[in-house]
TrEMBL record, chains A, B:
Keywords: 4Fe-4S, Iron, Iron-sulfur, Isoprene biosynthesis, Metal-binding, Oxidoreductase
Domain of life (superkingdom): Bacteria
Recorded name of the encoding gene: ispH
Keyword Oxidoreductase assigned: yes
Catalytic activity: isopentenyl diphosphate + 2 oxidized [2Fe-2S]-[ferredoxin] + H2O = (2E)-4-hydroxy-3-methylbut-2-enyl diphosphate + 2 reduced [2Fe-2S]-[ferredoxin] + 2 H(+); dimethylallyl diphosphate + 2 oxidized [2Fe-2S]-[ferredoxin] + H2O = (2E)-4-hydroxy-3-methylbut-2-enyl diphosphate + 2 reduced [2Fe-2S]-[ferredoxin] + 2 H(+)
Binding residues for (2E)-4-hydroxy-3-methylbut-2-enyl diphosphate: H40, H72, H122, T161, S217, N219, S261
CC cofactor: [4Fe-4S] cluster
EC numbers, comma separated: 1.17.7.4
Upper classification of the organism: Bacteria, Pseudomonadati, Thermodesulfobacteriota, Desulfuromonadia, Desulfuromonadales
InterPro entries: LytB/IspH
UniProt binding sites for dimethylallyl diphosphate: H40, H72, H122, S217, N219, S261
Cofactor descriptive note: Binds 1 [4Fe-4S] cluster per subunit.
Cell membrane keyword on record: no
Protein name: 4-hydroxy-3-methylbut-2-enyl diphosphate reductase
Active-site residues (renumbered): E124
Amino acid sequence: MKIILAKSAGFCFGVKRATTMAFDAAGKCSRICSLGPIIHSPQLVRKLEEEGVEVVRRVEDVPGGAVIIRSHGVTADELEELRRRDLEIVDATCPFVKKAQEFARKLSREGYVVVLVGEAEHPEVQGIVSYASGGEVFTVADRAEAEALPRKKRIGVVAQTTQSFENLQQIVGVCLEKSLELRVYNTICDATSVRQNEAREIAAKSDLMLVIGGFNSANTSRLAQICKEILPATHHIETASQIDPGWFHNVQTVGITAGASTPRWIIEEVLERVGTVGK
Amino acid sequence: MKIILAKSAGFCFGVKRATTMAFDAAGKCSRICSLGPIIHSPQLVRKLEEEGVEVVRRVEDVPGGAVIIRSHGVTADELEELRRRDLEIVDATCPFVKKAQEFARKLSREGYVVVLVGEAEHPEVQGIVSYASGGEVFTVADRAEAEALPRKKRIGVVAQTTQSFENLQQIVGVCLEKSLELRVYNTICDATSVRQNEAREIAAKSDLMLVIGGFNSANTSRLAQICKEILPATHHIETASQIDPGWFHNVQTVGITAGASTPRWIIEEVLERVGTVGK
Ligand code: F3S
Ligand code: F3S
């Protein structure tokens, strides 16, 4: 039996970097916390807690010592406040998110009304918005929300890194109707689409497909759905223990991928188990 | 019988301005020519010839004295050459076209690859392109041509003033796929869409619609077609002599509009004739 593991399975560049930085810092600092959970993986958050990394929700709750900023980033005010308190800052903001923050600030400073394509409640979006708050800034989730925007002479658009290109494209089309000058920085990160495209390719040449990740993880569910459309014998699992040996009947090739918040060791446990039951 | 004449019938702001400037200059200068015909109206070009305005095709053919630049504008090189020859320049380039030229130059100077939405053979387009020729510049007529563009980090878009918004919108959507940063100046002039929308409104409340303009004028034919869809009793005419008194049977309201190259006096001859036959 052949096993194909997706190269893009699991953490993206920014999350991998943030978790590495968090474990490194945990080894060096005696008092350390992270501002929000580093990632939507209870298993990983627990591991970090064992290393002494406490999760706090607000800047006011940081007890002192070192503080980790996760890949989503924080608002300009929060960063300012952390600096003012003279904490040791481990800034694991994803460099792609930092870019989106910088473009938002640049557009705002150069006099553009900033339109951020994304979900208003998402911490990444709140962070990016804060960098444009010197001027007017609107967050729009979709075309309909863009259509409600007022007319502005100059509009500058940036996107939450996880948005789909099609959504950005539609909103840009509407913003073109609303402005005389339009400037767009395409700050979409391709980690999600690369992972989805690779999953499609692997599903097409497999007899069984396993998609690993939390049942409440939106991106893992989407990944499983994409694979299922191509290969009905697709199973969404959280851990190796959920694998049913019956699935492997007559299977020549098993494809495996994992959502963005699935830690490496969980993928490896699955690989090991598949190697055993698939014999 | 009621007659409704469209406010937007005939010349747009830029063509009106250019013809006024041409007649004014003709009255003052003894030796004068225009670089290309001021407008696609043989009647008007003949009138200007009677006033001493000769039409020449190329800068080399300008005999000396004064030269009129028509509303489409000229290339940067041509303007340079006219200046070098120390001619009296009557620059009737439409201010909206001038803006498009300036934005093309600005984008090019700031390092953007310029994409001009328009027809490559049109003199206005050739003029605008010339202002961006310090850097890379592409002219694209439609979505398909835009899809053939290479990927570029920074793309700057401007449009020929007479393009449709839908075409610009589609091309901008494609350029977004081709770039990381996209900047768009919407240089479309609304004279055409205003004229078309007003024609629609008038046709809807008339019993007979007359659309005046050359049979070979693309914009007049389009205008007649738009009206015909709303009011089948629409007639495209070139001059007052083509009016058939039989059309006015049972007509309460006559709507009248005219294409972009139709001179005022031709519209007035039609008004007069309608007033007579419609009694
Ligand atoms: S956190 Fe990940 S999804 Fe992209 S923006 Fe950074 S690599
Ligand atoms: S020539 Fe006329 S169509 Fe617009 S760009 Fe100038 S007013």
